[in-house]
């Protein structure tokens, strides 16, 4: 049974909004490639270390989520598997795989746009980043530019899945 919803922190901090807007541009690039439009950035002290968008279809790789790719690239940039002091920005609440990558990388903070009621692992279905049974925890802020982040996803899936409301004889 999913955990009861917790109040969403939605500080419209200038840096958080600025970075989420950059993530939305990346999501639009993914959409143009026919990928699920999710964009992600890893930032430390206001400096973008990496950015990525979904490439599952392009790479034929089910693990090629924007968040995981951005985390991998940030690790390479820092020449470290630990991303202490970093913030992950993602247009969609990370799934269990990506939330696991956040914890393995020791990312301090995750800021996401749209909640994911079907696969969200930070607030919606699970709260992995706050689970005291795990070695690492991360601060989670959801709902930053949620409307814009949700809209690009909704439009993508509306285009992909045309209405099934067919007239029946």
UniProtKB/TrEMBL annotation:
Chemical reaction(s) catalysed: adenosine(34) in tRNA + H2O + H(+) = inosine(34) in tRNA + NH4(+)
GO MF annotation list: tRNA-specific adenosine-34 deaminase activity; zinc ion binding
One Gene Ontology biological process: tRNA wobble adenosine to inosine editing
Binding site for Zn(2+): 65, 95, 98
EC number: 3.5.4.33
Cofactor note (record): Binds 1 zinc ion per subunit.
InterPro entries cross-referenced by the UniProt entry: APOBEC/CMP_deaminase_Zn-bd, CMP_dCMP_dom, Cytidine_deaminase-like, tRNA_aden_deaminase
CDD domains named in the record: nucleoside_deaminase
Active site residues of this protein: 67
Name of the top EC class for this enzyme: hydrolase
Domain called CMP/dCMP-type deaminase: residue spans: 14-133
Domain of life: Bacteria
Keywords attached to this entry: Hydrolase, Metal-binding, tRNA processing, Zinc
Cofactor requirements of the protein: Zn(2+)
Family: Belongs to the cytidine and deoxycytidylate deaminase family. ADAT2 subfamily.
PANTHER family per UniProt: CYTOSINE DEAMINASE FAMILY MEMBER (PTHR11079), TRNA-SPECIFIC ADENOSINE DEAMINASE (PTHR11079:SF202)
Free-text function comment from the UniProt entry: Catalyzes the deamination of adenosine to inosine at the wobble position 34 of tRNA(Arg2).
Subunit structure: Homodimer.
Protein name: tRNA-specific adenosine deaminase
Species the sequence originates in: Aquisphaera giovannonii
Gene name of the encoded protein: tadA_3
């Amino acid at each position: 049974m999913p955990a009861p919803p917790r109040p969403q922190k939605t500080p419209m901090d200038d840096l958080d909004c600025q970075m989420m807007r950059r993530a939305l541009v990346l999501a639009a690039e993914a959409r143009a490639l026919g990928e699920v439009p999710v964009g992600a950035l890893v930032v430390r002290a206001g400096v973008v270390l990496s950015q990525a968008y979904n490439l599952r279809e392009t790479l034929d790789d089910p693990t090629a989520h924007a968040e995981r790719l951005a985390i991998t690239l940030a690790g390479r940039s820092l020449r470290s598997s630990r991303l202490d002091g970093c913030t992950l920005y993602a247009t969609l609440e990370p799934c269990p795989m990506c939330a696991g990558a956040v914890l393995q990388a020791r990312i301090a903070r995750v800021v996401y746009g749209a909640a994911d009621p079907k696969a969200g692992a930070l607030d919606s279905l699970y709260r992995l980043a706050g689970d005291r049974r795990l070695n690492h925890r991360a601060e989670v802020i959801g709902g930053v530019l949620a409307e814009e982040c949700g809209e690009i996803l909704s439009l993508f899936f509306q285009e992909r899945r045309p209405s099934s409301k067919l007239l029946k004889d």
